[in-house]
Write a structure and sequence with these properties.
Blueprint (H helix, E strand, L loop, with lengths): L13 H18 L22 H23 L5 H31 L9 H4 L1
Helix pairs in contact: 1-2
Length: 126
Amino acid sequence: MSTEVQPIKPGRLLSLDVFRGLTIAGMFLVNNAGDWGHVFTPLDHAEWLGCTATDLIFPFFLFIMGVAMTFSFAKHMGKEGIWGELLPHILRRATILIALGLILNVVSGAALGRETFRWVGVLQRI
């Protein structure tokens, strides 16, 4: 019995994909830690001093995005440089992230009964 091994797509960095998957799994874990009145300490943010695993998720995600951007930029850099294909791609991505963040703030605020609106959430910061 032989099994065929599928090659990794060119341009993919396996270690980055694994790190991204672990970070997303960490996001699910810390965002769904159960009853918020009884949270396992490493799954809660540190009060002021110190650091827990939860406090590392967002910086890890930003690091992953920064590394992935080098691959994306290299793919979109054309003969025209930044004004050719890359700048419209950046503006489109930024607009989508900001719009998604605002929509999620409206939906979650209405679901939770909040009367305040957050203009700057996680997606807008990215």
